[in-house]
Structures are given as C-alpha cells and as structure tokens.
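REVIEWER CHECKLIST
Item 1: Sequence provided? yes
Item 2: Single chain? yes
Item 3: Sequence as submitted:
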Amino acid sequence: MSTSSPTLAKAPVRSLSGLVPFVRPYRGRIALAALFLVLAAAATLLFPVALRHLIDTGLAPADRGQQALGLQGHFLELFAVAVALGVFSAARFYLVSWLGERVTADLRNAVYAHMLRQSPGYFETTQTGEVLSRLTTDTTLVQTVVGSSLSMGLRNAFMGAGALGMLVWTNPYVMTQVLLIIVLVVLPAMWFGRRVRRLSRASQDRVADSSAIAAEILNAIPVVQSHTAEARESDRFASSTDAAFQTAVRRTRARSALVAFVIIANAALLLWGLYRGTQAVLAGQMTPGHLGQTVVYVIILAGAVAVLGEVYGDLLRAAGATERLMELLDAQSPIESPSNPAVAPVHTGGAAIEFVALTFRYPSRPATAALADFSLTVHPGETVALVGPSGAGKSTVFQLLLRFYDPESGEIRLDGLPTRTLALQDLRGRIGIVPQDAVIFSSSALENIRYGRPQASDEEVHAAARAAFADSFISALPEGYNTFLGERGVRLSGGQRQRIAIARAMLKNAPLLLLDEATSALDAESERMVQAALASAMRDRTTLVIAHRLATVQQANRIVVMDHGRIVEQGTHEGLVAANGVYARLAALQFTA
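Item 4: Structure as written out by the authors:
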C-alpha cells in the first residue's frame, strides 16, 4: 500500500489516537495505573528532600548520641521512601503491562476479523504477507508503547516536571538559564524525530515486503523446487531483506544522532547545574544539603529528558505501526449485508436462481468484461452445467452468485429476491460449493468435513464421508478421523482432498450446490463413485456445475455454453451435438481424443 505525504506529516500523538477506541474500555485500570504512576514519581521526588535533611540536620555538629539517633531516623525516612517507590512502581508495572497485552490482543483480533470481512477484490491488490506483517510486527510495536514506553514516558514527564518545579522554586536564577538550554535541546530533537518517524514507517514497509515474498513462496514450495528456483528465490528474498536492512540502518543512524544529541545536551545541563551550585556553596549562598538536593533534582531532570528522548523514538515507530494498522481497519469492503435484510423462503426442491442482464469486470482487469449481458434462469431442482473455454466467465458466475463481487449492472435473484437484499450469512448459508482446488485446513479430517456445518455430530460427519466415498481412506489414516492432515492437506493426495471437500459440501446440505470441476482430481474409478454420490446429493437441490470434461455433464438437465462472458448455446447434450455449434466442436475434440 502506498503512503502519502499527508499521512507522514501527522504528529505521533495524532497517529496514535487510533488506539483510543481500544484503550477506552479499560478506563478503570488506566486510572489506577495513573494513580500508582503519580505516587511512584512523587516518592522519587521526595528522595532529594529527605537527602537534604540528612546532610543539613543529621550531619550537623551535635552530641554523638543524638547525632546517631538522628541519622537513624533520617535513614529510616529514606528507606520508607524506597519501599513506597518499589511498591508503587511494581503496581504500575503490572497494570500497564496487562493493559499493553490486552490492547494488543484486542487490536490484533479487530484487524483479523476486519480482514475476514473484506471481499476477494481487496486481496487482488493487497498481499496476504503484508497483512500478516502488520498483524504481527506492527502490533508488537504497539504493545511495546502501550505496555511500557508510554508509561515510562508519563512517569518521567511527571518526574521531570516535578524536578524542574523544585529547581525553579529553590534556584530561580540558575534554572532560568537551564530552561533556555532545555529549549535548545527540545527543538532539534523534534526535527530529528520527524526524520526518524519517516524512516521507521519506510523500514516497516520494507519488512512487510519481505514477509509477503516469504508467504507466497513457502506456499508454493513444490512449484519452486520443480523449477529448481531455490537459489533464485533465495536471492530475491535476500534482496528484499537487504533493502529492509538498508532502510533500518538509515533509521538507526538518525535515531543514534538523536540519542547522542540528547545525551550530550543532558550532560551539559547537568554540569551547568553542578557548576552553578558549587559556586553558590563557595559563596555561602547555599548549604551543602541544598546543593545535594539540587544535584539529585538535576540528575532526575536530566534522566527524565534522556528517557523521554528514547520514548519519543518508540512513539515515532509505534505511530508508523498504528498508521499501517488503521489503514487496514479503515478499508471498507464494497460487499456488505444490507441494514434490513430480506429473508428468502426455503424450498424443499432446491433454490430458484435468475441472472438478469449481468455485466461485470474484475477490479484488477477493468478493461475486459468477464460477463456481458449474461441472463440465465435456473429452476428449483434443476442441474445446469456451464461449459466453455477458459476465460469464458464460468467461475465468475459462481463468484457473483456468492456475492464475492457485485455486478456493474443487472441483478441476481435467489428464490425471487435480489441477492443484494439478503444478509451475506443467509445467502452463503444456502449455498454449498466444491471448488476445483480443494482447501484443506490444518486440522483433523473430522474438523475439515465439519467445517461445512460446525454443529454436526460425529455420526453425521461419518455419513457425509461415506456418501463422498472418503470414509475408507480416512479410516485407514493413523488416527482415523482424528488424524491431522497437515498444512493445506499435504498428507493427502489430490483426489482425497477433493473427496473431503465434497463431503464438506454434502454435510452442509444447502439447497443450492455449486460444483467447480468437482471431480477433476479424481481417477476414473473414484470419479465414477463420486459422480454417483453427487447424483444422489443433487436430487433434492438445485445444482450448477462447471466442467471442462464434457463426459461429466452429459446427464445435466441443461448445458449452457459460454464464450467471452456470453451465453452462445444452451440445451441438452444430444441437442447441442446435433446443432453442430461450439459445443459440438468441443465434444468432437474430447470424445475423439
């Protein structure tokens, strides 16, 4: 995804404001963490006061016994301050860490759920590796800020402001000069920060590019190895990671300059305060205890400024990460359920479908019409086969029927109701599909079949598997139906994966069945068995079949021949062969061969 300059021009706080909806539900914990944060900072600020009393009172000339008792009291005061600091800091750390983990989990869940609702058109232009990078790397950066850096920043800002206030109160002349130095520190740091933020965003984008390449190639290992492209793909990935490295180096160089500047400026601030303090003690204008108090406050102030510089760098990186996550959450799918959906009636004999003058172009191919003035009526219980050359628009019909896309013109009606008026869950719940490339999840055979109807019992799953002629090979697996099938079903053959997909569709028992080359991966014997199972399953439902092998569609009630997004012929197998048109030529080629 491209990043525009206006986005980069945003302030970090404005960019991080996208996290507010995720933080708001935990206002109570935030208030409690803020209380402990203030108490811990206050305990830190009390330490120099106790130290001053120790030096000026406990070490003053007096009776040795009284002096010893006084020292004990002062050290007990210091220890009490330390105990309070430890308790309050621990409570703050726990609450803030919990908040960081919780907000990150909520953010990751929200982004993932939002991505699942995007239409396939979104992923035509967005790589899944890019999305995965944002779900992992970017949310981890946000977790670092919410669960650690932001708390440290607030604590040090409070302590720095407190130390500054005490120094101004006790040493107004010296602090007037110190404030000028602080201004000279802050302004260049802000300039450095903007550059660091731009480079942080660029670095995260380059890492996402590498993740996208890795995700794509790891899912295509057999193809890569069959073309002996391991070295070539390794070089491509190395080039991508090197680009990410070079960008990270530029970011690190800029941030290192920022850190060096802040440290040097802080040292100047500390030394200037010490110098002016020692001059005041020598002139009799300040007591040694007052000097000790001043030194500690200056150290607190310098340390706070240094930590704030580091936190600012973290905020800059998190701002870039938040922008990238908000881009995902801001993505709006053009396919959504209507606010007041209609309810289509359920017919026992299957669904009725009407395609009325459809015209459609894929977003990634706007110059070519995938369907042009496509009209077709399918009656309840009818089996209609869509045939034709590749690119004729057959699969597009299925995509539009499932509302993965909406047509530019025309409409689709299911049982008399336009599909746009139906809730997506209701529409897709009425459709069972067996795709050409069967998708197997990283789970057991039982759960893969049950994916079609999660509430189905084990016996219903077994019955669907038997109907799809999958029971025999599943039972032969090491753990039967509980056998883990591997990522993308790598432990199964193509035909076995297809039969599991068929069992999944049969278990769903929807009134409309879509078969997209459903038997393409089966051998001749398995195809005959599955065709018999499908024939039984199709008796009580409407079925649309896509097939390139015409032998599989000869028994369809009607065969629709498509070419370049249009219907060019339709009829029975015998009638189309007798017409001696496009279908007859395709049939002659296949059956002669």
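Item 5: Key structural point noted by reviewer: Residues 353-592 form a domain with the Rossmann fold fold (CATH 3.40.50.300).
Item 6: Recommendation: ____
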